[in-house]
Amino acid sequence: MNDRLWKECQEFHGHACGGLAIGFRAAETAAELLGFDLERAEDEELVCVAESDMCGLDCIQWMLACTVGKGNLILRPRGKTAFSFFDRRTGKGVRLVLRPFDRDRPKEEVIAEILAKPYGELFEIKEPGFEVPEKARLFDNVVCCKCGESVREDMVRLQKGRPYCLDCFPRYDRGWM
Ligand SMILES: [Zn+2]
Ligand SMILES: [Zn+2]
Fold first, then answer.
1. Ligand 2 centre and the CA of 70: distance in Å?
2. Are residue 171 and residue 91 in the same domain, yes or no?
3. Ligand nearest to the CA of residue 151, numbered in listed order
4. What backbone phi and psi angles, to 5 degrees, belong to 171?
5. CA of 163 relative to ligand 2 center, distance in Å
6. Same domain flag for 42 and 119
7. How many whole angstroms from 17 Cα to the centroid of ligand 1?
8. d(CA 143, ligand 2 centre) in Å
9. Span from the CA of 29 to the centroid of ligand 1 (angstroms)
């Protein structure tokens, strides 16, 4: 294990916790399985799709340079501790799903166990069930007819043919959405 990187991740995140340790192991495991060097971590060819927003994403950002700003860290909220990694250069992808384990113990114990476990015992290694997300697309903008703010055209709703942003659109909810 790379102690320097683990220390840097804690500094970046602000504390050590079980979630951070999970993210650390996910980044390490991705590097091993997809065959890239953690110190490389520069380009945007590596994409991470995370299925929950959790502490560990700070390791993904720090170690793999996948960031929300660059568009190569994508949230796909499913409430699962699962990460898919795609390498655009090779077309390879892998999905890591955290196996259930007992977290009802002192924090230090949990962290130590996560850092020490072989990755195959920590994560189920699967194929991603979805394609690598496309690169950022450019959209036209339209102006919301209520608040007057500019909004990406695929993000508006129409009522009587007039565009509304999602915050202004009159809610129509019959309990199924
Ligand atoms: Zn944390
Ligand atoms: Zn609006």
1. 26
2. no
3. 2
4. -65, 135
5. 9
6. yes
7. 5
8. 8
9. 20
Same domain, 68 and 150: no
Coil vs helix vs strand at 145: coil
* Tokens, residue 95: 């999905």
Measured in Å, residue 161 CA sits from the centre of ligand 2 at 15
Q: Provide the domain count of the chain.
A: 2
pLDDT digits (tens, 9 = 90+) for 142-175: 999 999 999 999 999 999 999 999 999 987 777 6
Q: Are 101 and 113 in contact (CB under 8 A)?
A: yes
Per the domain annotation, does 60 fall within a domain? yes
Find the radius of gyration of the CA atoms of the chain: 20
pLDDT tens across 120-147, in order? 999 999 999 888 877 777 889 999 999 9
Domain that holds residue 18: 3-126
Q: Which ligand is nearest to the CA of 166?
A: 2
Shortest-distance ligand to the CA of residue 157: 2
Whether residue 176 is predicted with pLDDT greater than 80 in this model: the reply is no
CA 63-66-69 angle, 5° bins: 135
pLDDT score at 122? 97
Establish if 80 belongs to a structural domain: yes
Q: Do 29 and 64 reside in the same domain of the chain?
A: yes
Residue with tokens 């019959």: 174
Q: Do residue 8 and residue 94 come from a single domain?
A: yes
Q: φ and ψ at 85, to 5 degrees? A: -120, 135
| Same-domain status, 84 and 146 | no
